[in-house]
Amino acid sequence: MFCFQCQETAKNTGCTTRGVCGKSNDLANLQDLLIYTLKGIALYAELLQEFDIRSNRTGRFVAEGLFATISNASWDEQRFLSMIQTGLEHREELRKQFLEAYEKKHGRPFEGELHDAATWSPSDISFEAKAPKVGVLTTGDADARSLRELLVIGLKGMAAYADHAAILGYEQDDIYDFFMQALASTTKGLSTPEMVTLVFQAGRMALETMALLDKANTSTYGSPEITNVNLGVRNNPGILISGHDLKDMEELLEQTANTGVDVYTHGEMLPAHYYPAFKKYNHLAGNYGGSWWRQNTEFESFNGPILMTTNCLVPPRKNNTYQDRLFTTGTVSLPGAKHIPNRPTGGKKDFSAIIELAKTCKPPTELETGTLVGGFAHDQVVALADKVVGAVKSGAIKRFVVMAGCDGRHKTRQYYTDVAKTLPKDAVILTAGCAKYRYNKLNLGDIDGIPRVLDAGQCNDSYSLGVIALKLKEALGLADINELPLSFDIAWYEQKAVAVLLALLHMGVKGIRLGPTLPAFLSPGVAKVLVDQFDLKPIGTAEEDVDAIMAGR
Ligand code: SF4
Ligand code: SF3
Questions:
Q1: Residue 285 — pLDDT band, cuts 50, 70, 90?
Q2: Residues 470-501: tens digit of each pLDDT
Q3: Which CATH architecture has domain 10-220?
């Protein structure tokens, strides 16, 4: 195996025998083979675009496949074996369609050469034998490998956003077309400038995908509102729901109403509390615990069933006792955990097994008390625009610092807590994603009633931060986003953060700090392009960086 897609990769170069995350050699190889299968599908889908033939079914399959390979989502080898099998069948359908369309148009059969990804057959070689031959290291040149993987890793993040939007009924042809073009491109001998262009196009498409998801979420559940979320527990049994899937949240809340079972959010599901559509459920009791890497202790003390709707799922340790209470659904899977099947067409998921189990469980053990405030997505911040702009003009707010992104288990992430603590009292933190758990319980106070940590939501809501920046630019009459009193100190872990980074670069944001380490998949040559063109920086110490941030550097 060779995997370097996340921030915790071994020695910041690559996991080669077993993932730091726990991913096995076989699972990593199967994920590579799934990506290779998607490349084969993409090659035909791209060719079919020339005949104006496309289908959302293919787009959806590719998005789901990419999403399944993101860090800490799908741990079940059987799942990948079945996706590869289905993918190859799907590829053959597209191949047939292409050959027919070609012959119809040209009056003769297609005789061109196609890449192995489009033609290999499991009747010639087993999945196990094929998988190790199609991974990241098959691209020998370090810069070409880096550009291809930056593109594929960014696509994985975009695919997660596209999948969430599709679940709510929002899909766009141009996004699916780009998935096909980008995946197919990695099988071609493109020049470096051509590959760089595709990476920057990925930034534009990432922004478009995030905008689509924002529309899907806000049209379905309303615009997030300022909300105080309870951190304590009640006396009823509870179900803990984590991950990012709001449709699962909706259906779980509906099905648990009047059952005597409360629902608590964990990790990235915290922002569900901000949506008007969920506020009517009195049994949505609060948020329990912190970010994903604390699951092994927090799931233990929750006492009731846990529903994982997406990443990040940390496999339970041997001494954990909650395996029997752990349920997965959607993209996420884990051998030994019960999986709630997808909703039938036009129907709903059936969470009754989780609810029945919850009724037999003890209420959660209290971890903390108090509340957390959030819900500062774009509409809410725009509603406060006069107040915010007034505070900037009066000098009460000197600087905004976007500290969005992911959390992770490494000690080096203490940096983000230290930055939050060290920032002067006239600085406001804008956040989204689970990165917030490094500082959202520090009680950093407010500036004339504006909290110093403004949480827009999940990593899926990072789009809001871009909209807020553009609105501030407009309100302050500035020509360029880089003239704003705004700095970016982004924490990344998994591939959605890479999509967000590419989107920010597309927006022209310069001087982003990215940590706790720069991605291992950036070769020195590719890193230099990003440093030269966008002034992308690694983090330093909290003190140095806060000084530089406040000085606009
Ligand atoms: Fe290693 Fe991260 Fe890949 Fe897991 S996801 S194998 S930790 S690089
Ligand atoms: Fe977190 Fe996994 Fe990325 Fe959604 S839950 S931000 S790491």
A1: very high
A2: 999 999 999 999 999 999 999 999 999 999 99
A3: Up-down Bundle (1.20)
Cβ(490)–Cβ(403) below 8 Å: yes
Q: Where are the beta strands (DSSP E) in 369-471?
A: 371-374, 399-402, 427-431, 446-447, 450-451, 453-455
pTM of the full structure: 0.97
User: Would you identify the CATH topology of the domain 227-358?
Assistant: Rossmann fold (3.40.50)
157 — pLDDT class (breaks 50, 70, 90): very high
Q: Is the CB–ligand 2 distance for residue 494 below 6 Å? A: yes
Q: How many CB atoms lie within 10 A of CB 249?
A: 25
Q: How far is CA 52 from the centre of its chain?
A: 31
Distance between Cα 18 and ligand 1 center (Å): 8
Q: Same CATH fold, 380-550 and 227-358?
A: yes
Domain extent listing, the chain? 10-220, 227-358, 380-550
All residues at 6 or more sequence positions from 324 whose CB lies less than 8 Å from its CB, including other chains? none
State the Cα angle at 227 between 222 and 232, rounded to 5°: 125
Rounded Cα distance, 340 and 322, in Å: 17
| Nearest listed ligand to the Cα of residue 431 | 2
Select 380-550's CATH number: 3.40.190.10, 3.40.50.2030, 3.40.50.300, 3.30.390.10.
3.40.50.2030
Tens digits of per-residue pLDDT, 230-260?
999 999 999 999 999 999 999 999 999 999 9
pLDDT tens digits for range 339-380: 999 999 999 999 999 999 999 999 999 999 999 999 999 999
- The ligand that comes nearest to the alpha carbon of residue 436 is 2
Q: Give CA–CA dist 256/261, Å, rounded.
A: 6
* Protein residue with least CA distance to atom 5, ligand 2: 312
* Encoded tokens for 397: 């707010």
* Probe residue for ligand 2, chosen from 74, 210, 268 as the CB with the greatest number of ligand atoms within 8 Å: 268
Q: Residues lining ligand 1, judged by CB closer than 6 Å?
A: 3-6, 8-9, 15, 19-21, 23, 28, 71
State the DSSP H helix or E strand holding residue 227, giving kind and residue range, or none if neither.
strand 227-230
| CB 334, CB 328: distance < 8 Å | yes
- Give residue 455's pLDDT: 98
- Residue 507 carries which DSSP code? T
Q: Is the CB–ligand 2 distance for residue 245 below 6 Å?
A: no
Dist. CA 194 → ligand 2 center (Å):
31
Confidence of residue 414 (pLDDT cuts 50, 70, 90): very high
| DSSP conformational letter for 242 | E
Indicate which atom in ligand 2 lies nearest the CA of residue 408: 7
How far apart CA 542 and CA 421 sit, in angstroms, is 9
Atom number in ligand 2 closest to CA 292: 5
Quote the CA–CA distance of 67 and 396 in Å, as a whole number.
Answer: 42
